[in-house]
Amino acid sequence: MNLATFGFIFAGICLNAVAQLLLKAGTNAVGAIHLTADNWFATGLKLATQLPIIGGLSCYVISVVVWIIGLSRVDVTIAYPLLSLGYIINAVGAWYFLGEAVSMQRILAIGVIIVGVVLLTKS
Where on the tree of life does the source sit, at the highest rank (predicted)? Predict the structure, then answer.
């Protein structure tokens, strides 16, 4: 995998991770969602007008385009497991931007993911 191909794959992963963080920020602004027959439309409208959610959905759309470009250049058996880098990016982003706790067990799990990604990219 050359640097340009890795760039497309990594950009798709990062955009996907940013999308998740933005969606979570948007839902944090709205609060817990409890859909009922009476409130589904109002709740949907409230969600649809949250800027972080709009940004997150936009990141998803762009990430799909970038991901398709990356997939056209590398085997899916390499590209798809690299998506696990998104777990690392999301954990760090959720801790830094959203103030979520990252326990020792989560840090160990992230370490396992890193080892797996390194082994994968060397194959």
Answer: Bacteria
Q: What is the pLDDT of residue 114?
A: 86
User: pTM for the complete prediction?
Assistant: 0.84
Give yes or no for residue 1 having a pLDDT over 90: no
pLDDT band at 35 (very low <50, low <70, confident <90, very high): confident
* Maximal C-alpha separation, the chain: 54
- Per the CB < 8 A criterion, the answer to whether 96 and 90 are in contact is no
Report how far residue 21's alpha carbon sits from residue 83's, in angstroms, rounded to the nearest whole number.
15
CA distances (Å), origin 21, targets 55, 59, 96, 114, 115: 10, 10, 11, 20, 24
- Would you state the pLDDT for residue 116? 85
Looking at residue 37, the DSSP 8-state letter turns out to be T
**Cβ neighbours around 66 below 10 Å, total:** 20
Length in residues, the chain = 123
Which segments of 49-84 does DSSP mark as H helices, in order?
Answer: 51-71, 76-82
